[in-house]
Amino acid sequence: MNEDRYTPAQASAVARLPLKAVHKLIDSRLIRPQRATRGKESQRFLSRGQLVYLRLEAEGVRLLPLAARREVARAVESTPDLDAMTVKGGEALVIGVRSARRAVEQELARLRKVQRMVVSDPEVMRGTPVFRGTRIPVELVADMLAQGASEGEILEGYVALSSEQVKAAPFYMKAFPRRGRPVRYPWSGQEPIRVTGFKRKQLS
After folding, report:
1. What are the phi and psi torsion angles at 48 (to 5°)?
2. Is the pLDDT of residue 88 over 60?
3. Distance between alpha carbon 43 and the CA centroid of its chain, in Å?
4. Given the DSSP bridges, would you call strands 118-119 and 130-131 parallel, antiparallel or unpaired?
């Protein structure tokens, strides 16, 4: 992850704004990401200032008229140290930029921390992202939580995991979604299984 540019998925996770809404803002040219080419693929990247604006969208700026939103976006992107600004419409409205920037910085720190918990090695689970020091896929844990398994049940079944890792799984998958066609995993669509361990059979 580049410290100064972020994918739409990463921006969505950090700003707590649905990915669909992020793409809609890009397509409407309310925010204009940079483009970078990797091989035959062209990717869009957002700046830190744009992440701050997206956070403001999530906090209610999206309810303003489009012209006012463009004004806020331009000001936030062009003035990195902006604390607040006043937008005029039917009545003056003060936008608190500092708190949004602080929230983004906290989420970016969380994103970096979560990244350090995960590794992807072609020799381990065919490159599927797993928690460092284990062979447990991050997507498996996120999927189990989505299906209704509790944190305690997962920790009981996978003793190599920590509470912090379990909590990090959905955030990681939102920031780094699997690309290409969805992969059908053995656990997909099944009820969460509660694993309580086993006793080793005594040899006579």
Report:
1. -60, -40
2. yes
3. 17
4. antiparallel
Give the position of tokens 């920031």: 175
Q: Which of 8, 2, 10, 9 has the alpha carbon at shortest distance from 110?
A: 10
- Domains in the chain and their CATH numbers? 8-111 (1.10.1660), 120-175 (1.10.10.10)
Diameter of the chain measured on Cα atoms: 86
Report the chain's terminal Cα–Cα distance, integer Å: 56
Size of the chain in residues: 204
Q: What's the token pair of residue 37?
A: 């080419």
Query: Is 84 within 8 Å of 96 (Cβ atoms)?
Result: yes
Per-residue pLDDT tens digits for 184-203: 554 445 454 444 443 444 44
- From the number of C-beta atoms within 10 Å of its C-beta (0-12, 13-18, 19+), residue 21 rates as middle
pLDDT tens per residue across span 159-179: 999 999 999 999 999 999 987
